[in-house]
Design a protein that fits this description.
By secondary structure, this protein is of the alpha/beta class. It contains eight helices and ten strands.
Length: about 230
C-alpha cells in the first residue's frame, strides 16, 4: 500500500549548465509515488541526463526543490548529497560502470562502503549479494570472477544487484536495456521488476523506447514535464 507522500518530488526546479552556449532545464513539477514504477521517455538532447543528475544530487538546482523521501537535496552540501545518494538511491548506469578487475562480489558490495544505512539493511552483505545473484540467475561461482570476464548480460545483472543491495527506496535506471534484443530485454525487465517489488522500491527508468511502457505503472515524456532552454553567446 502506497503512502500519500511521494518518494520523489521536484517543484519549480531550474538549472543551467555554465558555459558560453549554455543549456538549461526547467521542471515545474514532477513526482513519483512510493512503490511506483515510472518510465521516462525522451530523445537525445531532451535533458534526461540533467534531470537524473538533479534527482541523484550530483548537481544542485539553481532554484526550486528536489525532495527524496523527506529530504530536500537542495539544502545539503555536495558531500551531504553524496552520502544521501549512497544510502537512498540505487543507480543502474547505461554502460554498467563496473570495476573491470574487481570481482562480482566487489562490484555488488561497493555501494555499501559509502552507505551505512544500506549496509545495515543488507545485514550479512556477502550472503545478501549471493542471494541477489541467485535471484538474478547468476551462478554463485561467479562471485569470485572478475567483472571483465563476464558477458554483457551477466555484467548487466551485476549492475542491477549493485543497485538493489541494501534495499534503496528508489532505483534509477538509465537506458539499461538499450543493448539488448527483445527476448533478453523482457527477461531482464522481469527479473528487475520482481526484485524492485520485493524490496518495495520505486523505479524510475529512462529510455527512448516507448515499447517498454506496458511494464510500468506510468509513462512520462520529458517534454510534458520539462522545458529546455538554450542560449548561445
Amino acid at each position: 500500500m502506497r503512502t500519500t507522500a511521494p518518494i520523489l518530488d521536484l517543484t519549480n526546479v531550474r538549472f543551467r549548465w555554465p558555459g558560453q552556449a549554455s543549456f538549461g532545464l526547467s521542471v515545474p513539477s514532477f513526482q513519483i509515488a512510493r512503490g511506483e514504477t515510472v518510465l521516462l521517455l525522451g530523445e537525445s538532447g531532451s535533458g534526461k541526463s540533467t534531470l537524473l543528475s538533479l534527482i541523484c544530487g550530483t548537481i544542485r538546482p539553481d532554484t526550486g526543490t528536489v525532495v527524496v523521501g523527506e529530504t530536500d537535496l537542495s539544502n545539503l552540501t555536495a558531500s551531504g548529497r553524496d552520502r544521501f545518494r549512497g544510502d537512498h538511491i540505487g543507480v543502474i548506469f547505461q554502460q554498467f560502470n563496473l570495476l573491470p578487475f574487481g570481482t562480482v562480489a566487489d562490484n555488488i558490495l561497493l555501494p555499501l562502503r559509502f552507505a551505512p544505512k544500506r549496509r545495515a539493511r543488507a545485514k550479512d552483505p556477502l550472503k545478501t549479494a549471493a542471494e541477489l545473484c541467485s535471484t538474478l540467475r547468476l551462478p554463485a561461482s561467479l562471485l569470485s570472477a572478475k567483472a571483465a570476464t563476464l558477458s554483457v548480460g551477466q555484467q548487466q545483472r551485476v549492475a542491477v544487484a549493485r543497485a538493489l543491495i541494501g534495499q534503496p527506496p528508489i532505483v534509477i535506471a538509465d537506458e539499461p536495456t538499450s543493448s539488448l534484443d527483445a527476448d533478453s530485454q523482457a527477461a531482464f525487465l522481469d527479473l528487475l521488476f520482481k526484485q524492485v517489488t520485493k524490496n518495495g522500491s520505486s523505479l524510475l527508468m529512462v529510455s527512448h523506447d516507448h515499447r517498454l511502457g506496458d511494464w510500468f505503472d506510468r509513462v512520462v515524456r520529458m517534454d510534458d514535464i520539462a522545458t529546455i532552454e538554450r542560449h548561445a553567446s
